[in-house]
Structure to design on (338 residues):
């Protein structure tokens, strides 16, 4: 949000000066607009209706995952198992549909698997006090292995032909707006209300800002941590269901892709601080718009995957450095795993 503040006159000439402070989200949106204009003028096919529809669909899924990740990052956490949770839970739901389950029941079962994974992550982090980085890195591999071995029949799980209603959330449109964008809007509104209007949201910010102070004010920090990871996993499962409906399948190899780093990139780039307690849904949406546009442009240019990874890595490193300069840690905020 733009903040126009009056600053005292330090020039000795009398009068006051008004300084226009532009937020990180607005800077990112300006860069996104400039990048989109540049791509539209230089890349054949970027500004076509078909490409823009594909861009909005892919950006929607990335945005949903980014919003999921932001809940735990604001609470000074991190979930590297998010993509594995998304893939296993949504593939499990599709497999149940293949075995005759209706899509509401199958989606609910997949969501239950995701929430259980989130609660386990939160329990280990909050009660066993293993840092989030190591916990979710390990559970990501564990989830992938257990899902492939005990829950799923193969690497790729396909959406059954009789699930046309379910497929709408990935392939349909409402008033010309792709259904995945509508789902993104609903998720964004829900999380925005949760974080800014509800008591639990204020607790999440307090938890991320200062764990000790949050505990001293009476906040149940450990159960709150479990709730944060459960919400993250549930929204991640929803992103997986939208992805499955869009492509009529889920490929478990997505766990081995760079998607999790794309998610972290949009979260940090938009202004959600890794030290916790800062940022929000608008931050994620700004980062999603920029990274989605950048990835789409690089795909049209047919850049080698290694070059794309170099660009994304450089942008992520720059975003982390800027975040570290804007929000330096002190002795109180540096404590992890409580």
């Amino acid at each position: 949000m733009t903040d126009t503040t009056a600053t005292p006159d330090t020039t000795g000439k009398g009068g006051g000066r008004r300084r226009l402070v532009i937020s990180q989200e607005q800077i990112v949106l300006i860069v996104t607009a400039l990048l989109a204009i540049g791509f539209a003028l230089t890349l054949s096919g970027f500004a076509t209706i078909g490409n823009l529809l594909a861009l909005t669909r892919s950006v929607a899924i990335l945005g949903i995952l980014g919003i999921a990740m932001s809940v735990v990052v604001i609470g000074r956490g991190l979930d590297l198992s998010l993509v594995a949770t998304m893939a296993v839970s949504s593939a499990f739901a599709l497999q149940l549909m293949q075995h005759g389950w209706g899509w509401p029941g199958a989606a609910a079962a997949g969501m239950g698997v995701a929430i259980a994974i989130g609660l386990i992550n939160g329990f280990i982090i909050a009660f066993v006090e293993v840092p989030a980085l190591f916990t979710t890195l390990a559970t990501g591999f564990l989830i992938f292995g257990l899902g492939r071995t005990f829950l799923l029949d193969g690497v790729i799980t396909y959406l059954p032909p009789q699930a046309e209603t379910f497929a709408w959330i990935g392939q349909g449109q409402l008033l010309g707006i792709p259904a995945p964008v509508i789902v993104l809007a609903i998720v964004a509104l829900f999380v925005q209300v949760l974080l800014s209007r509800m008591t639990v949201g204020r607790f999440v910010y307090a938890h991320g800002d200062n764990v000790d102070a949050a505990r001293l004010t009476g906040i149940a920090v450990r159960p709150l941590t479990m709730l944060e990871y459960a919400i993250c996993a549930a929204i991640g499962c929803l992103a997986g269901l939208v992805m499955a409906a869009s492509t009529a399948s889920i490929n478990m190899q997505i766990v081995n892709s760079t998607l999790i780093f794309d998610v972290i990139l949009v979260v940090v780039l938009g202004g959600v601080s890794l030290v916790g307690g800062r940022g929000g849904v608008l931050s994620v949406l700004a980062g999603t718009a920029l990274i989605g546009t950048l990835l789409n442009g690089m795909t049209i240019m047919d850049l080698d995957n290694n070059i794309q990874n170099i660009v994304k890595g450089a942008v992520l490193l720059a975003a982390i450095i800027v975040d570290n300069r804007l929000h330096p840690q002190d002795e109180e905020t540096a404590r992890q795993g409580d």
Notes: DSSP finds 13 helices and six strands in the chain. Confidence is low (pLDDT under 50) at residues 1-14, 331-338. The beta strands are 3-7, 17-21, 156-158, 173-174, 177-178, 249-251.
